[in-house]
Amino acid sequence: MIKGILFDKDGTLIEFNSLWVESTYELINALVKEYAKTDYAQKCEEIANLIGLIGDQVREDSILASGTSEQMSATIATVLQADQQQIHQKIDSFLYEETVRNSNNITAIGDLCALFEKLKQNNFTIGIVTADNYEVTEYTLRYLGIREHVDFIGTASNYQRKPNKEAMQAFCNTCNLEIDEVIHIGDSVVDMEFSKHGRLGVGVLSGVGTEETLRKYTPYIIDSVHDLLDQNDRFILEGK
What we know:
Low-confidence stretches: none
Number of strands: 8
Largest sheet: 6 strands, parallel
Strand content: 5-15%
CATH architecture of the largest domain: 3-Layer(aba) Sandwich
CATH superfamily of the largest domain: HAD superfamily/HAD-like
Mean pLDDT: 93
Distance between the termini: 7 Å
């Protein structure tokens, strides 16, 4: 019986491009301007490509799609021949400040408050697992008005990143759940690989992953998280 639902954040609960694409370009330009001595445009393009930016699109298998700020800092530090720890600190600070400053760009995928209220009414335990850091995640959930419905937050700040099973196990331990009582909802290959640690994974088409890619990992593909409930507000995976 499914009792717990772990949600990915970017691309699953919020529109990915609305928040991160423009901010990431700004971050790259700022770091290149600070650390590079020559070839600014070339280095900006190289970094963007390495972390997964192609114009205003994000590659579904990229660092930006499902990696951590630590992975991003390692890539950028290598290109700029800079200290990774210093770059990492700058990235985390920048992302939090950008999230707060541009909070109007945090666009929920549908009415998340209503969805989470219905899930809680059906006695589901709700968790969030994301490659983002804790401060950005906490701020985002409060901004969206759903923090009170979330029982667990797992981020790259306090657990090993997906697809490592640590956050799944922590969710179960914290909320008194068994592994086979938990499902994971996400939009990327990393999310689907992480889902293998639980009962099953559900792929959503609201983020970076294509149906063709996600279907290699799970038969459960929906347009968005709102399709978890049918028109009568019944959970579509009841009995799975």
